Amino acid sequence: MLFVWPALWAVALFLLVSDPRSSAIRRLSAVAFLGGTGALAAVVDGTFIPGLASEAAIARWEPTLYRVQVIASLASYYGVPYAFLLFAVAFRPAGWPRKLRRWLPAALLLPIALCLLLLPPYTERYPIAFSVVVWWAAPYILFGALHILLHRPRHAPFSPAYWIVCLAVLPPVLFLLTMNYILPSLGWLRMWVYNTWIVGLAIAIFVLGLFTYGFMGTRLLIDRRRLDSTLRAVTSGTAILNHAIKNDAGKIRLFGEKMRRYAEETGQPELAADVETVLGATRHMQEMIARVHRRTDDLALQPAEADLGELVRRTLAAFEPMLAEERIRLLCDLAEGWRCQLDAAQTGEALSNLIANAIEAMRAADRGEGVLQVRLTEGRRELTIEIRDDGPGMDKAQAARALELFYTTKRGGANFGLGLPYAYHVMRKHGGSLQIRSRKGAGTSAFLTFPKRKVQAVKAEGRPMAETERSETRHG
To answer: Signal peptide location in the record (predicted)?
Structure first.
């Protein structure tokens, strides 16, 4: 238990610091903290109190340590089931009414308050009345576990991170239910000593999750900070560069045009042609730096009400000639009637970048015919646009760098690697996210997720909630 106590408290602190605004993370942090508090009670009982060497130390410290043991033990026994159920509700809200979620924490405290008031006080052999507490602690934990398992995410990129959470949280909590509540209620006491191994395994899964698919969005949060800081640095640099080049290019253009007029007036066609070449290079240089600056500039959104499905449809319409030329089949499945407050121009440009990338990927595959799938689906808390191609896909290293500025797998042309970072920036400004899911040889999917609350999404009246449109267009 000497390992479990600091390890669980370290996990709790890490989660709390990673995203203190997330209700689910705060409550999972409470689960870890209260689990560690139970381990602290065991360490006080088995290590600290027996380690008091002298009579004076025993007389001075044993009463205080015993009080710490009592408080820590009761906090763990009563707090873990309570915090876990609240975590389950926050992790997968599943349409819980807001009023119910507001009153739920207070209502769930009632059995705990009654147990503290009416049941026998703490003793080392029976810290709680197991035969009574198990009747509410077991339902709390079992309901929370079933609630998490029955409300899985609908979209592929969120599934690995979801299962990492399930593997790191559910087994130790269910094991704790068995060892700390069910078996003691049947007379098998002090079974909590076996919790060490399952907690160690859960912490190993937690650490592994941080470096792979993420844990409760923590890896994504780290990636976001890195991408955001890089984007801010590049934005400042390109703004300075754009300003400097614009001024100098303006001077070159001014004197160049003066020189060209002089060459034309004096009948020097070769000099006029040379000057025109210089002016053309100046215009090209300005255009290149302006393109980089436009894609990295700090976006100022101009939100207005727009139908998200119609926006996707209009964006796709501009690509119909290209789809026909490349013999790409379009599968479109759009949830209808969702009106949102967003910047339609910026969102449409982000969509265009992703669609163009998908078409170029399928062109690179050179298989004769490709399939582009575009879906708009509605979840309980978000609207998600998925753009999926059946191109060559990317390996893990390429997919991990896909959102980095200036990173591109394309060769030749004026490909600066700014399309995906720009789309990421647009989604961040809308309070949403962009995630890329790809596998070598199996194509790539891009997911743009808009939280309904952030974009004030409202379902148009007169349309059933589940209504969607399914269309299939064959080009070529």
So the answer is: none
What's the order of all strands across the beta sheet hosting 444-451?
Answer: 433-438, 444-451, 382-389, 370-378, 328-335, 468-473
For the cut 50, the answer to whether the pLDDT of residue 409 exceeds it is: yes
pLDDT at 350: 85
Q: Are 8 and 72 in a shared domain?
A: yes
Q: Which letter does DSSP use for residue 191 in this model?
A: G
Q: Are residues 47 and 188 in the same domain?
A: yes
What average pLDDT does this structure show over 263-286? 78
The whole-angstrom distance between residue 164's C-alpha and the CA centroid of its chain comes to 13
Query: Could you tell me the residue range of the domain that residue 288 belongs to?
Result: 223-296
Last residue of a domain, one of 216, 239, 265: 216
Q: Between the CA of residue 257 and those of 243, 253, 260, 276, what are the distances in Å?
A: 21, 6, 5, 8
Backbone angles phi, psi at 398, to 5 degrees: -65, -45
Burial of 207 (C-beta count, 10 Å sphere; 0-12/13-18/19+): middle
Q: How many domains does the chain have?
A: 3
Q: Give the CATH number for residue 441.
A: 3.30.565.10
CB 79 within 8 A of CB 37: yes
Residue (of 188, 180, 102) closest to 141 by Cα position: 180
Encoded tokens for 368? 């004769």
Residue 182 confidence (pLDDT) above 90: yes
Residue 121 scores a pLDDT above 80: yes
Q: What tokens were used for 429?
A: 């400004």
Rounded average pLDDT over 375-386: 85
Q: What is the DSSP string of 48-78?
A: ITTT--SHHHHHHHHHHHHHHHHHHHHHHHH
**Using CA of residue 84, residue 157, residue 161, residue 418, what is the dihedral sign?**
negative
Which of 296, 328, 359 is a domain's end point?
A: 296
Sort 81 into a burial class: Cβ within 10 Å, 0-12 / 13-18 / 19+.
buried
In angstroms, rounded to a whole number, what is the distance separating the alpha carbons of residues 302 and 198?
A: 51
Which pLDDT band holds residue 276 (cuts at 50, 70, 90)? confident
403, 372 in Cβ contact below 8 A?
no
Query: Are 34 and 65 found together in one domain?
Result: yes
Least confident span in 212-216, 232-236, 268-272, 442-446: 232-236
- Pair 212, 268 in one domain: no
Using the structure block, give the residue that is written with the tokens 């967003």: 342
Q: Are residues 241 and 176 both part of a single domain?
A: no
Whole-angstrom distance, CA of residue 85 vs CA of residue 110 = 14
pLDDT for 332 beyond 80: yes
The pair of structure tokens assigned to 275 is: 């000057």
Question: Do residues 145 and 118 both lie within one domain?
Answer: yes
Are 438 and 289 found together in one domain?
A: no
